[in-house]
């Protein structure tokens, strides 16, 4: 007993010691940062650019990630301030693998393009450079590559995995009910190849995004469209000297030589220190601590939409609390809802939409789309006074589906049978062994159809179009932001900053502060959030296999994501 008590006491002491250390660590991070003269703002590998505070997963289970996370809005603000800051003489882009979404890269690239109007330099350096990193770096005045490096410039592709034969082989039945011929989230369970409708929408979507991306790279590198296409098709970027020959890079030099070149540009002596300041430190140097006065609130909605009260993703119970707080805060004069979501639960999306509609009755509500605003993500935008989309935003996917797996054949092959005793005619309309009854299929079909009609109804109200108009461009189809503007699914092409400015204008604000919601978790809150997880092992697995892979695993194993009508987009697009 004495040994057990000693162990318990030791664990408690260690836990509180750990909390104190985290607290001191947090305090040390709050020290003021002074920007030195002749500084170079540096975008490097140690910064993850995120869309929402909820994407910052620095938990006690994520000890391997040494990167710092910074909001895209703060990044753009930093570049804008650096343009007029006499202490900042230029920007150095030193990124091989950029952890940021495509619309975030678009906005940062545009901000750097505007920065160049100041006459200050923008240089870029790479080793083994990913396509997304090169897309950002190509905006530089000059691009330098390591002599043994390479640029993975290859265009966009998508690979769809199908499970129909796998399910049949192992006796897994999957009942699928959907509305929309383009609602391809369920295709992997129904077919062994891409349907003509899905191939059409994927081809259009990929080409829209790549044409927009490729044209910007070609202009920056002073290449015509045909020449650039040839370079990409031939994978010339992967061979260093061929990269230079074909204008993808300006010169092959070592990193030390690159730094020395910048020192020469700044007229520094050989022994003088090159003052580089990271994005995060530069943001800390000017962050306005005074948040008094009138405000425009940016409410970030990032991730899948679910029922529940978790901090990460978009969980209806917690988001309803956020919305009501914004509604009741008299200092907040307008709200911008920043959506970066492929959708999720139809029920949770409907709850959130209702509360946003109530918010709109009291103050202006403007919506800004990030990488994704599809299905449920598009649905909750229907309360907006105005919708801004990025050109490369995956938009729309107005469609609904339900997936009900069952294991009758698998069970029977292994000698498992079942029989049912019930009190009512349809008490067992669905079971994991026998699937849906014929009447259950009928009811679920009506549920899906009813949800689709409700979806289209809210779209017709917001977009001021007929049911037939929306149904013709709906059907689960995903559009690029550019085409979404053309067909009337959004009002304007623009950034989050554009949406904030319009919201302030609509609220008749001449001077205002911008506040972000939800607030980023403190170190203490993060610890207790981690310890309160239903399954702590899930956090460890997520850290090990990565967020994207974990989301696939979650769709298979998480009970709360099953047996409900879904408004969800089937895929993601990344410029890797």
From TrEMBL:
Coiled coil: none annotated. Residues 115-264, 358-510 form the Peptidase S49 domain. It is found in: Membrane. The chain crosses the membrane at residues 6-27. Keywords: Hydrolase, Membrane, Protease, Serine protease, Transmembrane, Transmembrane helix. The keyword Transmembrane applies. Its EC number is 3.4.21.-. Belongs to the peptidase S49 family. This is Protease 4. It comes from Chryseobacterium aquaeductus.
């Amino acid at each position: 007993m004495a040994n057990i008590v000693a162990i318990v006491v030791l664990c408690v002491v260690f836990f509180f010691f750990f909390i104190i250390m985290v607290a001191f660590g947090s305090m040390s991070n709050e020290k003021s940062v002074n920007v030195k003269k002749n500084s170079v703002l540096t975008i490097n590998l140690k910064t993850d650019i995120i869309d929402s505070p909820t994407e910052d997963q620095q938990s006690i289970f994520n000890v391997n990630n040494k990167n710092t996370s910074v909001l895209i809005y703060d990044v753009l603000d930093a570049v804008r301030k650096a343009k007029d800051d006499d202490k900042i003489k230029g920007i150095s882009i030193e990124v091989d693998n950029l952890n940021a979404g495509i619309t975030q890269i678009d906005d940062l690239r545009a901000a750097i393009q505007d920065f160049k109007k100041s006459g200050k330099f923008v240089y870029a350096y790479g080793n083994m450079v990913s396509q997304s990193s090169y897309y950002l770096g190509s905006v530089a005045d000059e691009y330098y590559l390591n002599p043994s490096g390479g640029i993975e410039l290859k265009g966009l592709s998508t690979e769809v995995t199908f499970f129909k034969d796998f399910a049949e082989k192992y006796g897994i039945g999957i009942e699928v009910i959907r509305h929309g011929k383009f609602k391809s989230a369920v295709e992997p369970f129904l077919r062994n190849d891409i349907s003509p409708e899905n191939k059409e929408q994927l081809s259009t979507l990929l080409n829209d995004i790549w044409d927009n991306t490729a044209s910007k790279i070609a202009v920056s590198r002073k290449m015509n469209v045909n020449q650039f296409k040839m370079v990409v098709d031939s994978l010339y970027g992967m061979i260093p000297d061929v990269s230079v020959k074909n204008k993808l890079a300006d010169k092959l030099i070592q990193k030390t030589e690159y730094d020395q070149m910048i020192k020469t540009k700044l007229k520094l002596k050989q022994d003088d220190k090159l003052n580089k300041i990271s994005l995060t430190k530069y943001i800390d140097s000017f962050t306005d601590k005074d948040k008094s006065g009138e405000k425009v609130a940016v409410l970030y909605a990032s991730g899948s939409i679910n029922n529940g009260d978790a901090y990460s993703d978009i969980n209806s119970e917690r988001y309803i609390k956020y919305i009501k707080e914004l509604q009741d805060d008299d200092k907040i004069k307008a709200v911008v809802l920043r959506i970066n979501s492929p959708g999720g639960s139809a029920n949770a999306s409907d709850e959130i939409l209702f509360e946003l509609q109530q918010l709109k009755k009291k103050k202006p509500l403007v919506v800004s789309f990030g990488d994704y605003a599809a299905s449920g993500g598009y649905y909750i935008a229907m309360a907006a006074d105005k919708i801004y989309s990025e050109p490369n935003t995956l938009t729309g996917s107005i469609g609904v589906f339900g997936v009900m797996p069952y294991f009758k054949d698998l069970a029977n092959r292994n000698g498992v049978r079942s029989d049912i005793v019930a009190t009512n005619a349809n008490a067992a309309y669905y079971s994991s062994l026998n699937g849906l009854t014929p009447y259950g299929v009928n009811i679920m079909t009506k549920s899906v159809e009813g949800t689709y009609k409700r979806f289209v109804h809210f779209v017709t109200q917001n977009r001021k179009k007929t049911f037939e108009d929306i149904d013709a461009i709906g059907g689960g189809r995903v559009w690029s932001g550019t085409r979404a503007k053309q067909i009337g699914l959004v009002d304007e092409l623009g950034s989050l900053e554009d949406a904030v400015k319009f919201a302030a204008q609509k609220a008749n604000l001449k001077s205002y502060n911008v506040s972000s919601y939800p607030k980023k978790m403190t170190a203490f809150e993060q610890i207790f959030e981690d310890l309160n997880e239903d399954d702590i092992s899930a956090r460890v697995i997520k850290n090990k296999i990565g967020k994207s892979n974990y989301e696939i695993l979650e769709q298979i194993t998480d009970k709360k994501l099953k047996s409900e009508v879904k408004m969800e987009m089937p895929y993601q697009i990344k410029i890797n």
